């Protein structure tokens, strides 16, 4: 009798999953059609479409409100939202229990995630999980060595970067959506955004690579005992102070971590009482899920985003990592997605430079051909606003998929 009841319950849960998925797909398609049909202004249609896609991916993947199964008490004190139901975490990638690293800021710490942050994996597989064995939770056990897992992570990042480049940043990254919402909030109050000088902005972009280098160096120093057999910093042993509070050094300052945790506690996917009860309140630590540095930097980045469009994207180390594997040789030679410019059709009107959220100037300054840069987030605002027919285009595998239109003439 009990077996039959359990079987029926499982069947109903499966049907509920199918129904939920069908409804979600239907709503997404309806939203896409609504934007394409009812937004007549071609100078804003792509912008509305991009925001819609960002919201869909945030709800679908990063908050984990649609992809199930749900109510899995894998980490009971945190809440019953799915925590380790990760894409690629089982099946053909059983040796990578943390799942595939989709190259966007997808925080490891909150419940409800379905993809894992590539930066977390790169750090964690150096320190503290260089050797095979148990991870933070009892249900994660690493079979391969840190080198082997890092090889998988970098292989996935390289392939995805070559195929889609920083399209992830402009259309999928949830923190990118947060940046865009800050910009729209500023517009509500009719306050013009500020601009950095070209020289300052270019210099700021170099900070991305410095952050990557510092993170890798710190990870190696902290993981020296496992890697070289010599402990360079006390407390890095399993259960030690550094191990407990400073594992994955970038995560201690990343603004995405507190944002994810606060959003998920707000919607009930994490137990706020438990998450916040682990906070100590010290400047340099605030428990496992939040750190004081996290919160301070989130505040600073939010302030920066209110003043400058896509402020964080200009210094994001993960965006820089994607750019390294997309816009520099030899990876650039195989890049599938490119922003192309026809020199003969450009009049140097400067619109592309003025409308670019991260203030990319290369699209304006380059004569023609592939004008994509490592800092370009492929938001397509320049293509959308360019008033010259086919002057700018987004090419996928050599084929144009979106071109600029003479929208000024069409508006008349």
What's this entry about, in short?
The protein contains 18 helices and six strands. It has 412 residues and is mainly alpha-helical. It folds into two domains: 63-330, no CATH class; 336-411, no CATH class.
Question: How would you characterize this protein structure?
Answer:
The protein has two domains: 268 residues, no CATH class; 76 residues, no CATH class. 49% of the residues lie in helices and 5% in strands. It contains 18 helices and six strands. A four-stranded antiparallel beta sheet has the order 4-3-5-6. Strands 1-2 form a two-stranded antiparallel ribbon. Helix 1 packs antiparallel against helix 2 and helix 7 crosses helix 13.
Per DSSP E runs of 2 or more residues, the count of β-strands stands at 6
State the strand order across the main sheet: 4-3-5-6
Instruction: Output the radius of gyration.
Output: 23 Å
User: Helix and strand succession?
Assistant: HHHEEHHHHHHHHHHHEHHEHEEH
Shape: globular
- Class by alpha and beta content: mainly alpha
Q: Are there runs of 5+ residues with pLDDT below 50, and where?
A: none
Amino- and carboxy-terminal Cα gap:
73 Å
Mean pLDDT across residues: 81
The tally of helices reads 18
- Beta-strand percentage range: 5-15%
Relative helix content: 40-55%
Largest sheet: 4 strands, antiparallel
Please tell me the total number of domains: 2
